[in-house]
Amino acid sequence: MNKLLSALVIASGFLSGVSVAADIEQGVMKDENNYYGLEKAQSNIALNAPFSKQYEDMSAESEITPFGPARGISYFEIGLVRSANGGDQTITKSAFSTGTDHGGSYLYVYAWQVGYGNPNNATMNGQSKSAALSEARCGSDLHRCRAGETVTGWLYGWDFSGQQNGQVKVSSNSVASPFGNWSDSLYIN
Question: Would you indicate the residue range of the signal peptide (predicted)?
Answer without folding.
Answer: 1-21
